[in-house]
Specification:
Blueprint: H1 9-32, E1 36-41, E2 44-49, E3 54-60, E4 62-63, E5 71-75, E6 78-82, E7 88-94, E8 96-97, E9 104-109, E10 112-117, E11 144-149, E12 152-159, E13 162-170, E14 172-175, E15 180-185, E16 188-193, H2 201-206, E17 214-216, E18 230-235, E19 238-243, E20 249-256, E21 258-263, E22 266-272, E23 275-280, E24 285-286
Antiparallel strand pairs: 1-2, 2-3, 4-5, 5-6, 6-7, 8-9, 9-10, 11-12, 12-13, 14-15, 15-16, 17-18, 18-19, 19-20, 21-22, 22-23, 23-24
């Protein structure tokens, strides 16, 4: 039997109005948070907005992209957090600090570690689950086997009674996802997708176009269980970003001396010797050359 709860219309309207007001101010608050991005100048870090207008002048030893509306900064050897206008929201006093993830950050001071909320209050439930990436776990399907002959590696696949084999001619084979691998031959590399194995068998035997010099798999800083779907790829001496969730595709073509993992939508790059700045997923650069 269903239980029916009837309330006077006036009380119901008060509840509805309260809900609408809450939603309005929540959206208003979300819209009022300006996106700011760290930039470096003469060894100090500040922040600019997405129009490359300086919001916070360089004064920090380290600065990191926004997470949950706050930016982690380091000054005088200590970490704290500022908001999008540069106001200190959580005191710069911690020896170690992580970025916020789902409203929680891990901080350490004088050897004592705890978890805090964005209002700096202690959080007793520990760190939140990671949401920074779609996780890539490097485990092949059961049909794939990597085998060794001396110092060389080959690939054997048995599926649907069909047998394909790539001979042991590769210096290294790096699993990237359950279907994607990176093959290295004569110090150059290329990608092989398990679903295209037979079609590219001759291509990889002959190694016609192994052109990549190196790859860089980025571990998640929070959960440590897998790789980001964005990887670094080096070609002709420069680094770029590839999206490899299904098949490799350039996200940002190679043009940087060094790159790091995307963090909260931005990746740290070395664009000139000892000069660093951030780029977003679309390749927009947030630094002054």
């Amino acid at each position: 039997m269903a239980l029916r709860l009837s309330l006077p219309l006036s009380i119901m309207m008060k509840y509805i109005n309260l809900i609408l007001i809450t939603i309005f101010f929540t959206n208003l608050n979300a819209q009022s948070i300006e996106i700011i991005v760290p930039f470096s100048n003469n060894g100090k870090w500040g922040f600019m907005n997405i129009n490359k207008e300086i919001v916070v002048f360089p004064q920090f030893e380290e600065a990191y992209p926004q997470a949950n509306g706050l930016c982690r900064v380091k000054k005088n050897g200590k970490y704290g957090f500022i908001n999008s206008s540069g106001k200190i929201k959580i005191k710069i006093k911690y020896d170690i600090a992580s970025d916020f993830e789902n409203g929680i950050a891990k901080v350490t001071r004088k050897g004592k570690t705890k978890y805090i909320k964005t209002n700096s209050k202690k959080n007793n439930r520990g760190i939140a689950l990671c949401g920074n990436h779609r996780c890539l776990l490097p485990s092949f399907q059961e049909s794939i086997t990597i085998y060794d002959v001396g110092k060389k590696k080959g690939i054997y696949r048995s599926k649907w009674s069909n047998i394909d084999t790539l001979p042991p001619i590769f210096d290294s084979i790096i699993p990237i996802s359950h279907q994607l691998m990176y093959l290295i031959k004569d110090s150059k590399g290329d990608f092989l997708h398990e679903g295209s194995f037979g079609r590219y068998q001759k291509y990889f035997k002959e190694a016609k176009d192994f052109k990549y010099q190196d790859i860089k798999l980025f571990n998640c800083d929070m959960c440590k269980t897998g790789y980001s779907t964005t990887i670094g790829v080096k070609e002709e001496g420069l680094w770029g970003y590839m999206e490899v969730y299904i098949m490799p595709d350039w996200q940002i073509k190679p043009k940087y001396l060094a790159i790091e993992v995307f963090n909260n939508g931005f990746g740290l790059v070395e664009y000139e010797k000892d000069k660093f700045g951030y780029v977003d997923y679309q390749g927009n650069e947030y630094f002054f050359r």
